[in-house]
Amino acid sequence: MTVARAWRIGVAGLGTVGAALLDLIDTRKGFAPIDGVVSVSAVSARSRSRPRSCDISGKIWYDDPVALASSSDCDIFVELIGGSDGPAKAAVEAALKSGKPVITANKALIAVHGAELAALAEEVGVPLLFEAAVMGGVPAVKVVREALVGDDIQSIVGILNGTCNYILTEMEATGRSFADVLAEAQRLGYAEADPTTDVGGFDAAHKISILAALAFNCTPNFDATEVEGIEQVELLDIQMAKDLGYRIKLIASAERVEGSALVRVHPSLTPLGHPLAQAGGALNALFIESTRLGRIYLQGPGAGAGPTAVAVAADIADALLATRRPVFQGPARTLPQIEAVDPSRLMCRAYLRFLVKDEPGVIAAVSETLAEAGVSIESFLQKPVEGAAGVPIVLTTHSVAESVLMAAVERIAALSAVLDRPRMFRIARI
Ligand code: HSE
Fold first, then answer.
1. DSSP conformation letters of 327-386
2. What is the 170 CA–ligand 1 centroid distance (Å)?
3. In angstroms, rounded to a whole number, what is the distance separating the alpha carbons of residues 164 and 250?
4. Which of these, 198, 200, 207, 203, lies nearest to 156 by C-alpha position?
5. Residue 62's closest CA among 132, 14, 129, 130?
6. Domain with 353 in it: what CATH number?
7. Is residue 66 a contact partner of residue 87, using CB atoms and an 8 Å limit?
8. Out of 137, 154, 166, 317, which could bridge 31 as a Cys pair, Cβ 3.0 to 4.6 Å?
9. Catalytic residue flag (residue 100)
10. Which of 109, 133, 157 is the last residue of a domain?
11. Contact present, 378 and 396 (Cβ < 8 Å)
12. CA distance 118 to 224
């Protein structure tokens, strides 16, 4: 990269994060370790005339982010468009091909296309940085990629989606349903109009795929990530779990499993006193466990304009300091991908809820089916709910092979006394 004293940043995507970044750079004009002035020289967004909180006067406007990315009007390209494909990917590729360092907050892009983009960046010899893609301004990527290279990370477990955490927290606090709280969050602008990426667990899955790749010296493989969102969590489950001493959280985890890594996102029960159960509202929180250091804990705002802009700024500083690192933990073309783990090898403890007819022998039938499968019950709760069609029975299991448990749950679902699809949530291994 050519060394210059005036650093020109091109920014594509002027949503809340883009606007906060322009504001941050316009206000500070540089960052402590950088010798020179940093400014945003050129921008691109869907609409030029849309009212926005940042000042774009004096900046070169591009309708097309790809044209901005390959132009000579900027030295560094910042992608804040979002989405794993389309203009975001095209613009990042164009910037890399024209020899520009790229900084992105786009977790979907890195989780899905990280390997090929990293290979391109390394071929050209420019950085591709994405601190803002995971936990907003909380430096999770730096910790995993840089601070822990001298250790062996065993597991990463946490809450990586603020929208889901907010919804679950509000359901418990106000006694409202998932649909009610989601609708309110959308009205207040906390949740997207199309909430699927967040509530379906995909956003958290993108983030944990990226951290897993960095932790386990691989490239990301989003297809190998198991994803389950919070749509099936009912208020009743939140209340029942609490009676059993747990809080339901959307937990993202990546663990070393015999030469591979298990990467997954599931609604999971966390013990009420555990820091992950205590991280409420839109907070993100993450435990990283490594052999020598032990466990460390990061917590903070995992989204939001200001925090995310801070992470982009840190990447701009790194790009300008010409830190020489591969994009992941080795040349992308030589790293293996994370492979999916055979589910028959996995063990779990679980929470099960069945809605059953209130008649003799039903509990016996459920427990016999579990006993025949070799599933051992740890605790059991039956709590009639006023006005409900049947009676919910809830139980937690001792550790059992997931495939065995799922087969037993299917057999129970087929019993004539079972009125609704059973619910099964894992108890988090934390
Ligand atoms: N929508 C995300 C969240 C933030 O709710 O945490 C951006 O990844």
1. SSSS-TTTSPBPPPPPGGG-EE-EEEEEEE-SSTTHHHHHHHHHHHHTPPEEEEEE---T
2. 17
3. 7
4. 207
5. 14
6. 3.30.70.260
7. yes
8. 317
9. no
10. 133
11. yes
12. 19
**What pLDDT, in 10s, does the model give residues 58-85?**
999 999 999 999 999 999 999 999 999 9
pLDDT band at 189 (very low <50, low <70, confident <90, very high): confident
125, 194: one domain: no
Quick one: which H or E segment has residue 43? strand 37-44
The two structure tokens encoding residue 349: 């403890």
The residues pairing with 253 across neighbouring beta strands, listed in sequence order, are 157, 264
Nearest atom in ligand 1 to the alpha carbon of residue 207 is: 8
Q: Residue 262: its pLDDT value, please?
A: 93
153 C-alpha to ligand 1 centroid (Å): 25
Query: In the numeric block, which tokens belong to residue 381?
Result: 């709760």
| Residue 175 CA: distances (Å) to CA of 65, 195, 239, 281, 309 | 45, 21, 9, 15, 35
- pLDDT score of 300: 96
Choose the residue to mutate in 161, 170, 230, 250 for probing ligand 1, maximizing ligand atoms within 8 Å of C-beta.
161
Structure tokens at 338: 């994370």
pLDDT of residue 32: 80
Selection from 61, 296, 45 nearest residue 158 by Cα: 296
Q: Which two tokens stand for residue 134?
A: 């995971």
Domain count across the chain: 3
Q: Of the candidates 301, 316, 335, which is a domain's last residue?
A: 301
Q: For residue 117, is pLDDT > 90?
A: yes
